[in-house]
Task: inverse folding
């Protein structure tokens, strides 16, 4: 029997441009170059008690450049690479839908494509996510818009060092939490 998972906040990470360099339509392990600090950042999130989820638009599927199996296989490989580094990605979601290449196969999941919140909401429906403290990191405005649509803070990543960015975000969230919980603020 599997023990129930404990509720905790989640870090929703875009894939291309956040975890790995965005080369455009990556779908094989040989196309993945990890962003500086990516594995250590996921490990830190694990240590701080976060679920770690990847949410990625994959228009290459709708465009016919690769299929869903290629994306699933790549995500299994990425999860394995993370595990070897002592880090865990708890789950992945991808949006195959693209409005310009819609042939009906993925229309039902059109709200999964960022800036829609569908991938985030689906993960929240399947995992015991605590909204307070959860956040999203992406490299595009559409990522931040998806976070906002899911009522989460969203942060833009500049592509430099993911570990440094995560540390900064966690400091901001910790400061905000302390400010809210401070005895001086309880009666305001």
Result:
């Amino acid at each position: 029997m599997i023990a129930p998972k404990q509720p905790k906040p989640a870090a929703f990470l875009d894939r291309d441009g956040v975890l790995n360099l965005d080369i455009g339509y990556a779908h094989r392990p040989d196309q993945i170059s990890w962003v500086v600090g990516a594995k250590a950042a996921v490990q830190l999130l694990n240590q701080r008690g976060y679920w770690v989820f990847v949410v990625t638009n994959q228009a290459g599927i709708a465009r016919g450049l690769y299929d869903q199996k290629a994306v699933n296989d790549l995500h299994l490989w990425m999860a394995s690479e993370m595990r070897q580094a002592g880090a865990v990605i708890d789950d992945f979601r991808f949006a195959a839908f693209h409005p310009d290449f819609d042939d009906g196969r993925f229309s039902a999941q059109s709200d999964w494509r960022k800036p829609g919140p569908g991938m985030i909401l689906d993960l929240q429906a399947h995992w015991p996510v605590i909204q307070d403290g959860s956040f999203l990191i992406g490299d595009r405005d559409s990522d931040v818009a998806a976070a906002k649509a899911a009522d989460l803070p969203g942060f833009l990543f500049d592509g430099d060092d993911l570990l440094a960015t995560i540390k900064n975000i966690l400091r901001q969230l910790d400061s905000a939490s302390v400010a809210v919980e401070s005895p001086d603020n309880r009666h305001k």
User: Anything to note?
Assistant: The helical segments are 38-47, 59-62, 68-84, 118-126, 141-149, 162-181. The chain has one domain: 10-179. Residues 182-188 have pLDDT under 50 and may be disordered. The beta strands are 10-13, 51-57, 91-95, 135-138, 154-156.
